[in-house]
Amino acid sequence: MASKNLCLMIMIAGFLPAITMATEYWVGGDKGWTIDVDYQAWAKDKTFKVGDTLVFKYTKGHHNVFKVNQTAFQSCTAPPPSEGLTTGHDVITLAKPGKKWYICGVPTHCSDHNQKLVITVEDGAPAPAPAPAAPAPPTEYWVGGDKGWTIDVDYQAWAKDKTFKVGDTLVFKYTKGHHNVFKVNQTGFQNCIAPPPSEGLTTGHDVITLAKPGKKWYICGFPTHCSDHNQKLVITVEGGTPAPAAPVPGLAAPVPGPAPKKDDSNNSCKVTTSAYKIFVGGVVLIWTILTLV
């Protein structure tokens, strides 16, 4: 019986089509999407199929991604900015077979630094229906953009068009030993008063995760950098998903009190009265008989 079942399973398996899982490709591998990378060499040994995805990973604000046609690819001509992808973690699902062209639209990145990719997508199983949109991943902000964390930069202008949320990160990039980073309160920010040196960040690549909503103040603690050169940043962090409220404990069931003590006084009284009546009745009966006699 077991051998028959095994044969049946083998026959069924022979008729089942091969199932191929979609592949996720991180464009450029460890280097990501940036300038001066040979993306055609990266793509050379890969087979792209319908249903696969391309992930363009880069520092937000430093690059972008445009899907273009062959002519725009060759001339490095980007479409209108509204058509670009700019999240820093752009995911593209390859929905149809054929040639696909992608470029970075930042000036000179495509033309002078070869930040462009062309691939051929092979036909395959139809692309799966899009999954429900996942929550937006946390954003990494490089404070000051290309200028980094230094003197004489208008950090409030840099932060003006950005929305900071709980879970996002700030990266303070600077030459180690030339600057530092202190988190301060509003008074320390306004007066450029740095806390004790032991509270400062000094690595040159300081990463701060925004864990709570509200105002956040940061300054450089080097003498005159904050007061004379405006090396300071204040942001407002928006709240993330509120933590679930603690469950309200249910009301305890009332504890039954001791059962009331049974009062047998009435019963005792009844027994005593009955016995008295019998006794009196007997006496009356005897007296009546004696009287008659």
From TrEMBL:
Family matches, as InterPro entries: Cupredoxin, Phytocyanin-like, Phytocyanin_dom
Family annotation (Pfam families): Cu_bind_like
UniProt topology in membrane: Single-pass type I membrane protein
GO cellular component: plasma membrane
Subcellular location: Membrane
SUPFAM superfamilies in alphabetical order: Cupredoxins
Organism for this UniProt entry: Nicotiana attenuata
Domain Phytocyanin intervals: 23-123, 139-239
A GO MF label: electron transfer activity
Region feature Disordered, mapped onto this chain: 246-267
GO biological process terms on file: response to symbiotic fungus
Record gene name: BCP_10
Gene3D superfamilies: Cupredoxins - blue copper proteins
Keyword field: Copper, Disulfide bond, Electron transport, Glycoprotein, Membrane, Metal-binding, Signal, Transmembrane, Transmembrane helix, Transport
Protein's name in the database: Blue copper protein
Main location: membrane
Signal peptide: 1-22
